[in-house]
Design goal:
By secondary structure, this protein is α/β, with parallel strands linked by helices. The chain has 2 domains: 4-25 and 341-490, no CATH class; 35-257 and 297-330, Immunoglobulins (Immunoglobulin-like). It has 9 helices and 24 strands. It has a 7-stranded mixed sheet with strand order 14-12-15-17-24-23-22, sandwiched between helices.
């Protein structure tokens, strides 16, 4: 990125770091009825995904408040099917607890996918199949499992969001990124049936099932997010739950929150999402970014016939996006791109670099409060850098003071580089941690495939993350643990 970016975003950076007096923290709420106190439900996993289109569905919203009624749209070759709701979390004996089950529902094969011009937007123009009542459901992340009498199964994800996040650490599901990569109907924001990226979608709709990573309808939740949800619940801290669509739609979502945590792949951000998180930070709300490619794509939303904010728009180009003529600040090149570059480093501290890569996470700052007594300088945490990564890059605006905690050598695209996990603090008292790798959350799983299930990796990552979340739960962490800049000592420039 050229240094001309600095002038373009100087005012934004100044505004984000202007001295702000943090309000007194809200009293910490009691944790919700501890999931760990209730027995988990075994057998929640899909064992018979079935053939393509054997059973699949979507909900009329990405999140609901407790008590809302959610409509499900299901298409299946089964004569009958049932829906079972599992709350995902830290339960004895299982990652899930059954909270609700429907009776048998008549099945039918619904209309074929429709591709809407000129954006190649795929929708499933289906009729609702049933209503799901959420009265009495605890806030959290749910998987609604569809079970057909044809032995086919599929998930529909649903977040039951917290009515008030005052005093809570808010876990944000990155559903905009799940949707960007969703290939159901042949098109995503990356691909087309022909394989030609030029024919990809310019807008994707939540009015269709997910067809992504695990091919089980849950988006990227099980891979990038569930290990963190289980881990955080196991700590017994007050948690809040939301999607990034909620973060976009509700400027008061983070009122009184202690911290916001975005999960393993949180790439697609709207202007409102970014503004709301920045404003929270500048009120003293701590931030944790546990991925390696956040705030990279600029999106905007539009309604569909199903509801508000159901269409996610990203042309990945300023001049191709019609909004460049009518509302240029809402056109959708990457956040870092001209003519209005606003790089992610302003909020993250580090800056996206490259993929794919797989390397060790290497300790560089054992004196930092997060690492002290857990790891030592030069210690390798096997395989935790990847698939995408970030590092500090002073050619773009970077908050100071900032500490690099892990400075990990690697090679990506034939070029030697480093991945940096960072920590900075602000005048408001907020602290911001950015893992700089998508595999941090994998390290919370004792069976993490990226580390080869190395127990030393699991021990270190869980200890550091525990220390981080417990401190963040106490309020503005920068007041007790201010960052001490170490870029010069590491030769970072």
């Amino acid at each position: 990125m050229k240094r001309t970016v600095i002038a373009a975003v100087a005012l934004l950076l100044a505004a984000c770091t202007a001295p702000t007096v943090a309000p007194p923290p809200a009293p910490a709420p009691a944790p919700a009825p501890a999931p760990g106190a209730e027995q988990g439900t075994p057998g929640w996993e899909i064992t018979h995904p079935g053939r393509e289109h054997a059973i699949e569905g979507y909900a009329d919203r990405t999140s609901a408040l407790p008590g809302d009624t959610v409509r499900l749209f299901v298409s299946t070759t089964a004569a009958r099917f049932t829906v079972t709701a599992f709350r995902m979390g830290a339960y004895p004996g299982s990652a899930a607890r059954q909270t609700w089950q429907s009776g048998p529902v008549p099945g039918r094969v619904q209309a074929a996918a429709v591709v809407q011009p000129p954006t190649s937007t795929v929708v499933a123009p289906w009729q609702p199949s049933l209503e799901v009542p959420t009265a009495g459901w605890a806030p959290g992340d749910y998987l609604l499992r569809l079970d057909g009498d044809n032995q086919a199964q599929q998930y529909v994800p649903l977040t039951v969001r917290t009515p008030s996040n005052a005093g809570r650490i808010v876990l944000v599901n990155a559903v905009t990124t799940w949707q960007a990569y969703n290939r159901w109907g042949g098109y995503s924001l990356y691909d087309s049936p022909s394989g030609r990226k030029a024919e990809r979608s310019r807008a994707v709709s939540f009015d269709r099932p997910y067809q992504a990573r695990d091919m089980q309808g849950a988006g990227d939740f099980r891979y990038f997010e569930l290990p963190m949800v289980r881990f955080a619940e196991g700590l017994g801290l007050p948690l809040g739950y939301a999607t990034d669509v909620d973060l976009h739609a509700d400027p008061h979502l983070l009122d009184g929150a202690r911290a916001v945590v975005t999960l393993g792949h949180d790439e697609y951000w709207s202007s409102a999402m970014r503004a709301n998180v920045t404003a929270a930070r500048d009120r003293g709300v701590n931030l944790a970014f546990l991925g390696g490619n956040e705030i990279y794509r600029h999106i905007r939303f539009a309604p569909t016939a199903t509801g508000a904010d159901r269409l996610e728009i990203d042309y990945k180009s300023f001049t191709e996006d019609p909004a460049h003529l009518t509302d240029p600040m809402e056109a959708t090149p990457e956040w870092r791109s001209p003519p209005f570059p606003r790089p992610e480093s302003v909020l993250l501290g580090n800056y996206y670099q490259c993929n794919p890569v797989h390397a060790d996470l290497v300790t560089a700052n054992e004196q930092n409060w997060l690492l002290s007594g857990i790891v030592h300088n030069g210690q390798h945490l096997r395989g935790l850098v990847g698939n995408e990564y970030e590092r500090v890059d002073l050619s773009v605006p970077t908050p100071r003071p900032i500490e690099v905690l892990f400075h990990s050598p690697l090679t990506c695209g034939g070029k030697p580089d480093f991945a940096d996990a960072t920590y900075y603090t602000t005048a408001s008292g907020a602290a911001v941690f950015s893992a700089g790798t998508q595999y941090w959350i994998c390290g919370l799983d004792p069976g993490c495939p990226e580390s080869g299930a190395d127990p030393a990796v699991h021990t270190a990552v869980t200890a550091i993350t525990t220390r981080l979340l417990r401190a963040f739960a106490d309020g503005p962490t920068g007041t007790t643990h201010p960052a001490t800049d170490n870029l010069a000592a590491l030769g970072v420039h």
